[in-house]
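Morning - NAP inputs below, output right after.
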Amino acid sequence: MPLSPPPALGKSALPAGTFDGQVVAVTGGGTGLGKGIALEFARLGASIAILSRKPEHLSAGVEAMEAVGAKAIAVACDVRDPEAIARAFDEIEARLGPVDVLINNAAGNFPAPAEEMSPNGFRTVVDIVLNGTFNCSREFALRRLAAGKGGSILNIGATYSWTGGPGTSHSAAAKAGVTNLTQRLAVEWAPDDIRVNCLAPGRFPHKDLPTHMTQHRVGEVRELGWAATFLCSPYASYISGHTLVVDGANWLRRSLVMPEFVPIREQFGRKAREEGTATDAISKTRGDK
Ligand code: NAP
């Protein structure tokens, strides 16, 4: 029997008003899972700051929060740029008040065979996912420490960071870093009452994704939102450094008999590599004449 569907959109897992008076900053909160997570905080009374780069994402995020009656602002910011992050936190403080909860959700990803990833493409994904998470967490902690106040950070990992599933070397490596950073920062900042946790989503299709992979049961975005609000709420006050997997046990479906392996080139509809073509590929990525 498959896992049952979740309660309807709009139901809350926590008491009404759990985040009344709190400011929640969500990077990448204008699309997909970030928007879904932000919405659950908004429904529970939080004021929301959406941080990302593109105006259309920022306005979509603010519109969605206002539609459930929350106060929300858009703050243009690239998480790779520490100075821009500092300015973004200044702006949030001036318009909403200090950030109480930080959700590090922004990410970049473009599935490709590893040998076809340029060093620049690899660096860009690591820069957004891992360095961006550190940059925002550091800015958040500096301000909470200076104010003598605790807080909560939620990072977004991915179950594929624990497997060898092909096609996302850059993102998987960066997410593995995020999982470790969650533990490190949780330990370092526990004496200051700053909790740091991580959610590892399985497959959560949503309309902002360009394509959907079909699976038996995939996650509904609200299921991630409920987990996020719980981990950042006072009801999780003794949970820190934890990575919570939300994937219906999907990533654990491995046994002595593995699912049939499909080479990455086949998954991407590329021809199987013939003898000598690897050398051609190397020349091409290096730009040899
Ligand atoms: P998405 O729709 O592609 O959203 C990514 C968001 O990150 C966008 O709002 C984007 O906004 C923002 N962003 C990208 N680069 C940025 C930068 N340099 N600075 C600031 N913001 C930036 O992704 P999603 O599917 O909702 O995924 C959300 C999170 O869940 C990610 O961390 C992802 O790795 C993780 N995840 C998702 C799934 C899934 O099935 N969907 C599975 C596992 C893990 P701008 O373009 O406006 O900057």
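Note: Helices lie at 32-43, 55-67, 82-95, 119-147, 169-189, 221-232, 264-267, 277-286.

O.
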